[in-house]
Design a protein that fits this description.
This protein is of the alpha+beta class and about 220 residues long. It folds into 2 domains: about 90 residues, Glutaredoxin; about 110 residues, Glutathione S-transferase Yfyf (Class Pi), Chain A, domain 2 (Up-down Bundle), CATH 1.20.1050. It has 10 helices and 4 strands. α1 packs across α6 and α6 crosses α7. It starts with a strand and ends with a helix. The relative contact order is 0.14. It binds glutathione.
Length: about 220
Amino acid sequence: MTQIIVHGIPGSPYVRKPLLVCEEKGVSYRLAAMTFESGAHKQPEYLTLHPFGRIPAIEHGDFKLYECQAISRYIDRAFDGPSLTPADPKAAARMDQVMNIVDWYVMPSISSGIAFNRVVKPKFGMPVDEEAVANALPLARTCVKALEDILGGNAHFAGEAVSLADLFAIGHLDFLAQTPEGADMLAGSPLLGWLERMKARPSVQNTEWDRLLATVAA
Ligand SMILES: N[C@@H](CCC(=O)N[C@@H](CS)C(=O)NCC(=O)O)C(=O)O
């Protein structure tokens, strides 16, 4: 099986998505790691893989692809292993809805506003932008409520089985739970049970930031 090469920076919740999908499908992959400090994802060589200078981008043989929704669906469709898309059209629509909520609302509030300032910046000795954190709170609260409503009494967002929706959300909500604002927002939330279930999965454990850094350094 041709290995999938994932270009990205360890710690990014977006880079984590294709890694999680490969882990769940049992697909062989390698993280071609860049560092945040190097700015390599804005350099001409990387821009041939991703003209917008975002991470991740993947290579599968001579097939190159960027954008996590496209990448995740490609890996799910192209390989054997458990399907990460529900067969039922309504459940599949729920999965798609969560993936879009993550891209459009979770990323700018929970990730860029709260987690980037509270979790990522301190690791790099960068100053925290308290105003950005405060400004992100209303949309972040709406995200938490919307995801709670979609989860309902199910084990996962698109029903009982794990789907791409859960793999899209975990990196972002994992970070949120590590922040004081997130602990407050998630107190008593059914999302905590979902987080616990997700964090028990080998795919989630194998793609934790520290684990990826250790793997890349080895
Ligand atoms: N729509 C893109 C978003 C990817 C994205 O925003 N990645 C962030 C990392 S979490 C990034 O590249 N940040 C670096 C930058 O914006 O310069 C996707 O789904 O792949």
